[in-house]
Every structure is written in C-alpha cells, then in structure tokens.
Give the backbone structure.
Amino acid sequence: MNSKPETTPPQMLGHYQLLEAIGRGGMGLVYRARDTRLEREVAVKCLRTELFISSHTEFEGHYIERFKREALLLAKLNHPNIVQIYDFIEAPEQLALVMELVDGRNLQTYLREHIAPLSQRLQWLTQIAEGLAIAHDAGIIHRDLKAENILINKRGNAKITDLGIAKSQDFNATLTDHVAGSYCSMSPEQAMGESISFKSDLFSLGILAYQLLCGAHPFGDTSNKLQIMQRIISHAPTPPQQHNPNLPAEFVDLLGQLLSKDPNKRPDNTHWVAAQFKKLSAMNLQDNSASDDTQALAMPHSNTNNNHITRSAGTQDHPTFETRFVAMPITTKISAWQKLKSHIAANAITLGSLAISLLIVAGVAVWQLQPKPPKYIAVIPPKLTAEGMQESQQELVKGAVYDALQQSVIQLDGYYLIPRDEIADVNGDNETIRRATGADELITAEIKCVVEACTITISRLTPEHKNPDSRLRVQNAKTVDVLTDNYLSVATIVNRNAGDLYSKKTINTLQSIDDDDYSTLIGINNTYRSTGARRELLDTLDQLHIATKETPSAQRLYREISLDIYADSNDQSVLDRLKKYLSSSINNASETSHLYNLYNLQLVEGKFDLALETTEKLSTSRSVQDELVAHVLIEKGEYEPAIKKLEKSLAIKKTAHKLFSLANAYSLIGNNSQAKKYLTETLLLSPNYYKSHELRGQIALLEGDIEQAISSFETLIKQKPHDILAINNLGLSYLLTNNYLKAFELFKTASEAAPKNNNYLINMADAKGLHDSSSEHIELYRHLIEKINNEQMNAQNLRLRSQAYAHLGKYSEALTDLQQVEKSDPDNIETIYTAALVHTLANNKASAILNIEKSLNNNMHILWFSFKWFDSLCDEPTFRLLLAQHNSLDRCHP
C-alpha cells in the first residue's frame, strides 16, 4: 500500500468512470462520475486516502466503520430534499458512496451569486426542515447542518447533503463523535461535548434560518472559533430585530424556539417545525407588506472551498444586499427582569457571564425566551352513568366536574383553553372535536355514580408518538371517589387531581365561596346551557355573595348570559348590568378571564379601539389574537382586513370556528362562492356544526334558493326551537314566496321573544305593508324610528331607520341616514340593498338601479327586487335589461 495521499484519482472505480473532482467534504473527495451500466452521471464520494490508510489500525477502523455507517444511514432515506444514495463500493484500497448528482451549487455559494427573495428563502427553510424531519424519523441526526451542506439545484430546490458525520441515535458515539461538526453551527450541548438528540439539529437549523432571514450569525463574528463556541454555550443570540427591525413576530417566535439553550424548550417534532415554516411562507406570500428585497448570507470565515457535489457555474462575486421588512412589528410585552429570570433558570452561568448577560438584557430583549405558542386543550363535557340518582343531581355533578377541569386548565402555563362554545358547536365525538378545534390535547371525565357515591376518572389524551395526526391515547389518568352531597367538595377534589395530570399544583379558585352559592352557580349554568339566556338568571346571579361574584366562573357566566340577551333584545340596560357586575372583579378575578370578558363587552358596545387595546394585553397565541382582532374589524365593517387576519390565524391553527368566521366575513361582502367554500371546509371538519348550517341557509336565502332556505331553517328550529334568528330567517323565506301572512306571524314570534331587537320589528312592518293596505305598518315604522332615536346609533340602526323613513315618505331623512351608513359600512350587502330600496322609493331611479346592479353583482338574487316597492322601476329600460340578464322578465308583467 502507498502511505502517501493520492493526488490523481483512478480512472475507473467499479463500473463508475471518475471524470473530475467537484468538491471536498469532511471525510472525502467528491467526483463527478459516469455510471457505465445505467448511462447516467452520478456523484462519487471517496474516503480520503490519508484517513483510510493509517499506521494505527484502531484509527483506520474507526473511519472505515464510520464511512460504512453513513452508507447504511443514507440508504434509509428517500426524500426529494435529501441527496439520494444509489450505491456503496468497498474496494481493497477505496471506500466510496455513489449518490445523486445535484446540478447546482451549495447554498452559501448560491447566495453569493444570486439574488434570493424572502419567499424563496422561506421555501428553502421549509424544504430543509421537511428533509430533516425524514432523517429524524429514521433515527438519524445530521450533526453538521449548515449552508455549505445544503445544495440548490437548477430548479431552485434545496437538498440536504453530507450526512457523513450523521449518526444513529442508537449508536454509542465517542467523545470525538460528539464534538464533530462545524463550530459555528453547533448546538450548545454539541459544543460542550454532551450527548445530543435530534434537537441539536433544530438549533443548527435555527442558526441557518436566522442567517437566511437576517443576513447575520445570531452569535456575532464567527472568525474566532473559541469565542463563537463560548457565545453559543452561554450568551443570548442577538435579537433578530437588530438586523431587521420590522421582522414579523411569527418569524421571531419560531427563531426563538429553535435557538433556545435548553433542548427541552425547543420544538418536540421536526415535522411541526417544517409545518411552521410552510405556514410562515404562505403568510408571507399573502401579505403584500412583506418585502421581497434580498440579502447575502453572512457566513463563518473559512479558508476552504466547500462546493459539495456541484457543477461549475462561474465564480464572480456579487455585492451584499440588505433585507428590508415592512410588515408590522408585533412584540410580546415581557419585562426585562422576567426575561432575565427565565435566562438564568434555563442556563447554568458563571458570575462572569452573568455580568455580560445583565448588559445584554439591559440593552436588548432576550427575544428567544418568549413563550412557545401554547398548546390547545379541549375539555370534553363529562359523561355520567348513574343508579339511584335523580337527573337534576346528575347534571349538577357533571357541571361541577366540568367547571373544575376548566379552572385547572386556565392555570397551566403554556396552554390555551378552547372556549366551551366552540366545543359545543362541533357536536361530535372526541376525534371530531380534536380535529375541528385544533386541539393538541383533550381532557375527558367519566363519572359512575351509585346513589350519592361517584367514581370519577379524568384522563389526559394526547396523540401517539408526538405525531399530531396520530390517534389519541391516554397519557395520564386519575381516578377519585367523591360523595355528591357537596358539589363544592366535588369540584375541589377534581381541581386538585386535574393538576396532577400535568404535574402541576393548581389553586382552588372556589375556596372562598360557600356550598350553597356554588350549587346555585352550577344550577344557573346548566339552565342557561339547556334552555337559553333569561333575565331571571341574571337576577339570581346578582344575589350571590361578593366572593362568588368575583370568581372567573361567575364572571364568565354573567357575561355570556348578558350578551345573549342583548343580542336578541338590543336592551342597553343589560349591558349596564354587565359592566357593573364585571367591575367587582377588576382586582380579584383572573386577569386573563377578566380581559376576555372586557373584550366581549367592548366589542358589543362598539368601543372598537378599546377592544383592540384589550387584545394586546391578552397573553395568548398570535393565532388567537389575530382572530380576536378580526372580529373587531368585522364589527367595524372593515371586512377585507378582517379576512386577511382570519387567513393568517387559520394558517397557524386550523379550526372550524375560524373557517366559519371566514365564511361569514365573505358572505357580508356578498362573496358567496368563497363563503360556501369555507362552509364546506367547516362541515368537513365538523359535520354537525350548527352555525354553518345556519349561514348556509342564509346564503340560500340571499341567492333565491328559497326551497333550500326553508328546509335549512326548519331543520334548525327543530334542533333549537328557541333559535330566534332561525325563526326570523324562516320568515324572510316566506316573505320572498309572497306568503306575507305566514312571514308576519314568524316575525311577530321573534319580536315577542326579543322585543328590543329592531330587525324583527321592521320585518313585521314590511310583511304587514306587503300583505294589506291597512295603516298598521305605518305605526310600526313610526314606532321603530322612535325606538332607534332613543338608542345608541350604529350601522344597523342607521340602515333600519333609513328604510323606515323611506317607507313613510320622509326621503330627506332617509337619504341622510343612508349617506352616513354608506360612509361607515359601505361594503355590507345590507347597506347596498338599503340604498337600492331608499333610492327607489325616493324616485332616484338611476341611483336605485346602480345599487340593484351592485347587489346582483354581489350574488343577491333578483327575487329580492320582486316586492312591489320596486314596481316603479319597470318603466326603466336599464332595469328591464337587468331582469332579462337574470331570467326574470316576467317580474314586470301584470
């Protein structure tokens, strides 16, 4: 054997003809070669001769075995974002891998020679994470993930290469193995020579992502090996906003998780990381405010040329470009002291490094220690079987258990309790609830009772193998025995044991109230859930002791009942009662619970700026905040911005509730095709989603599919006989079939159930006016105007008063109201229809026809213009043309 390194490669290696050297890896040279059997070009990676041939047998054997191990590991992988292995050659004096030849350049070189927009960089990160996830699934840790080991092919796709120092998680590596890898891409545990897991690769991916998004290394200058390793081990990364001041918060949050010093605080699943990059990529493409200006990639100083498995494409250097982000910056408000405590708790640091850390915290935010996006928990309503127990008592036991479980989850850091109404709207089994609410975990309770003794089993359900798409399994469970003669005691025991499922001590929020108050509270809650909101329920809640009123359970219940009553009645006194009730909890109730209650009240009152301020104070996920902001924008009539917010929220976490909200927003601007698309998606997630069936009926009503509308609303009323909105919409359906008397009776039923709701009152007046020539409808319109004059003015009241004035012949007043609502809520289909009606009655025919055409273009059916109010337009050729275009020429014939 020749002990000197070979400088000239053999012409043939097996049936592979070596053509030219194209790169050098950590363990060998890479050649472009020709497979003479399959007639294709390949890349052949040969073990460096100086490593293969050594005077030390143990040293030689170590590298040979390591090289073979690479082949076995690579053979497991088959993914478009991983360089594919074709063959393995073991010759007497040579080991080699035969791999896919990637026609392109490594990422570091590519970014020196090309301008890459932000959208492209995010696509690469998604592809890299997806390939890395497959490697991790196979038990492989890359251990040297960096830009030089990412190849960009001619189609612009990223491929991971150089798994030469990757290792199986089952392999017992030596200390030399542990510290292998490029010093500026290592994780802290890798740099310290500790054992590593796949989460080490996630840290390296975080460094690469930071470089791609910020154009700099997160730990500063990389020219000094020891210094950069020390910074990786003990220093906080530079906040990315210093390089890109307007970097969106979603990007910052993900970088912070990946670059956490503590592996346990990094994401638990590489597929999840890939999904996040994909979502962020989608968000960036949808957000016109995000710039696609580019920057070169700041890389460690190196004297080597590592163009692995590439073909020559020129070497001209290009200047560095700076990225300019213009998306709105959103940051979580965390005090410097809280961040410092988190930093100290997460890392063992010396007194000297503590001084440095203090300076860092004083100057910049320790951004990477912001909390991870919370896990969503759905608490499933308990199931109870009983012998010898009254049904009313069973409901109280279930209510106490459910309330206790909710109060326990609220106290868990890093978790978000999915609202009860969202779970109830799904109306399905556990898997359906999980899918429709986007729940990461479920908590269930099985209760078995004999007379007054019950055994309660509470279970924490999580996906198998940490795969979010796998089936649920019981991760932990607790079983307790209780007596039901004291419901407060039942709740206290469940509350304590629910915390044990998460190894957390929970506080009993009910300890300050007495047994009778708690039984009353649970009873009111059960009555409200089963029969709906009634004022006497508020009266009973008002009579509870102050300590009970201050509990989150009582505050939330009072808010839900009050707002339900207000939605049906439009009675301002109900909101006044709610404000008074909530004021008692400002200093005592859970801050999060109080802020949610305050947000809902401000939304209903039309105090939109205050509602937006409240959302900023809530410590919740970006997805939830975007959804809350979207609801404010919808109430303001800003539908397009609301849709964008909902789409961003949906990209982070898909739920039936968000899909429905999107469908509703699109329906409000008359885009029924998009609305129906999202309704279909909602019903795929949750086939029994009540609100989606209701909105589908409303769209059928607008589109003139009266048969479908009547069928939908009658079905809804059978399920919920007291659904006033469904009763009203059924009345509108009959109005469009000219069954005015039937419509009037339905509107009357709705109005009697909610006498302060002005919508039902004007519908009564319309039906009465269309049915006969008596003056009764005139009195109804006058009564409506008087009512509205004494109420808070909003867009809906302006529309209704404008119509009422027009029906009374007071056109000046009607047009004044119309002009005002057209400024505040111009895109709402109801505003456009009101304009068509008012201008017709005021004999402004050109304006009337213009708004009719606009209504029809927004998918309102021509049937809505069949009422006698629009008969005067039949003499207008333009109106008749519209009728012809919509196959309704008979409308103007006697």
User: Anything to note?
Assistant: The radius of gyration is 34 Å. Residues 1-7, 165-180, 285-296, 299-371 have pLDDT under 50 and may be disordered.
